[in-house]
Amino acid sequence: MIEVKNIYKSFDQKEVLKNISTTFQKGKTNLIIGRSGSGKTVLLKTIVGLHEVDRGEILYDGRDFTRMGQKERKNLRQEIGMVFQGGALFDSMTVEENVRFPLDMFTEMTTAEKQKQVDFCLERVNIKDANHLYPSEISGGMQKRVAIARAISLNPKYLFCDEPNSGLDPETALVIDALIHDITLDLDITTIINTHDMNSVMEIGEQVLFISDGEMCWTGNKEEILDAENQKLREFVFANKQYQQIRDNKKKQ
Which residues are CB-neighbours of 21 under 8 A, at least 6 positions away? Predict the structure, then answer.
């Protein structure tokens, strides 16, 4: 579980996050949604420590990240997996080498133990016969799956995904959503996903936080979001007329 308490963050005297408080539950897919420029990416980067808070607290299972020294933060970061927007695979490394990279950096496993973990992670994301291929030799969807395999290689307690469906076709995006959801359940981890994709919200949005202009405007789940009365949220959701039709059909039933 990750708790965010009264978070504020500014850049160049412009307040980007304004008094945000919420809890991201363990074993659930927690989504942060909002328009471009809403502050959702800043919030995710602040939680993971890429930005420092101006005020507020971030608690990882009761441990106050904002008060930790560098050594404590380094130890905590080994409990975190991160899937970046573009995948961020190393072009000069094979699929296998990319997944093994965190193990080489942060563990004292034997070569055989590392290989076993790499094979397990690649199998978990349904990658076969691609160990020795380079990122340029596989599809965008496969690259995202390799990025997820790398993110879970250290058996993290916390998984952060920044726009994991960016650049993917709708069918592949659904596959990635399902994969992240299944891994969250199987490993019983706290997963936070930053997205503006309403398809992801409706597929795996077990807990959804909507941000607008740096403020928390609404929180709920995928079952509640279509009937929410928050005007800013409604404008965001129903910008896609598909969901307006879904809501209207629900009312007729």
Answer: 4, 5, 6, 7, 56, 216
| 205: containing domain | 1-79+156-222
2 and 116 in a single domain? The answer is no
DSSP label of 19: E
Question: The tokens 């997820």 sit on which residue?
Answer: 148
Pairing between β-strand 80-83 and β-strand 158-162 as defined by DSSP bridges = parallel
User: What is the value of pTM for the model shown?
Assistant: 0.88
Nearest to 94 by CA among 73, 70, 72, 115: 115
58-110 pLDDT, tens digit each = 999 999 999 999 899 988 988 999 998 776 889 999 999 999 999 998 888 99
* Rg of the Cα atoms in the chain: 19
User: Which token pair is 115?
Assistant: 């290989």
> d(Cα 215, Cα 198) in Å, to the nearest integer?
19
Does any domain span residue 20?
yes
Cα end-to-end span (Å), the chain: 37
